Amino acid sequence: MSDRASRLRERRNRSKEKVQSQAESESGSEDRESEESKPSKTSKTEKTSKTGETDSSHKSTSLKDEQVGTYLYLPEEQRDEMNFRYKIISAEYEREFGESLEKNRHHYPLVIEYGLDRLESATPEEVQELLEKLEY
């Protein structure tokens, strides 16, 4: 196993532990008393719902717990363009609403969803034309 893989695994474990400790600290003293009287473990979904009740932002739960990781292979120019557009959209969004637009949580799902919408109504000929435009 590579050192990089070990570091990534450690980082994920620390992130999960941090989320769990935040969830435990956000639950009130009532929850602690009832947990002490009940020996059963709290499931991950129950912890997620508890943090969702106290904090409506998505930052209280790990993105990896909410979504499925998907890896894409893109031409370098297309990846660079997507990153550039993300930076512009993110800066404008943050200026307008005062909160950040996360790349994995917000931007990528938007790109996929609206790209799928466009392809849904495309004929095979239109798909072929779009593919020809993509060739670098």
Record the SSE blueprint:
Blueprint: H1 3-26, H2 29-37, H3 44-54, H4 63-66, H5 76-97, H6 103-120, H7 124-134
Helix pairs in contact: 1-3
Structural write-up:
- Residues 1-74 are annotated as: Disordered.
- This is DUF8160 domain-containing protein.
- With 136 residues, the chain is an all-alpha fold.
- It has helices spanning 3-26, 29-37, 44-54, 63-66, 76-97, 103-120, 124-134.
- Helix 1 (3-26) crosses helix 3 (44-54).
- The longest helix is centred in the N-terminal third of the chain and has 24 residues, at 3-26.
- The chain starts with a helix and ends with a helix.
State the major sheet: none
Radius of gyration: 21 Å
**Average of pLDDT:** 75
- Amount of beta strand: under 5%
The best one-word shape is: extended
Low-confidence stretches: 29-58
Order of helices and strands: HHHHHHH
Number of helices: 7
Number of strands: 0
How would you classify the helix and strand content by structural class? mainly alpha
Percent helix: over 70%
Distance between the termini: 36 Å
Task: Provide the number of structural domains.
Answer: 2
Features:
136 residues; mainly alpha; 0% strand; extended
In short:
The protein is mostly helical. Helices cover 73% and strands 0% of the residues.
